[in-house]
Specification:
Blueprint lengths: L6 H14 L3 H30 L1
Length: 54
């Protein structure tokens, strides 16, 4: 499987590598960070759009 040029694929490969090293807590933190970052980005974009049209 090649994941070049695919950020999500790279993240999954990194997670799989971390899992093999036996650091599941790192995976949980990493996935939480990615999803939180995405949610915060959406919320920030949404509130800026709301302010622009208010």
């Amino acid at each position: 499987m090649t994941a070049k040029g695919n950020a999500q694929g790279d993240m999954l490969l990194e997670v799989a590598d971390t899992w093999q090293k036996g650091e599941p807590w790192d995976i949980v933190l990493r996935l939480s960070f990615y999803s939180l970052d995405a949610e915060v980005g959406m919320i920030r974009f949404g509130s800026e759009a709301d302010r622009a049209f208010a």
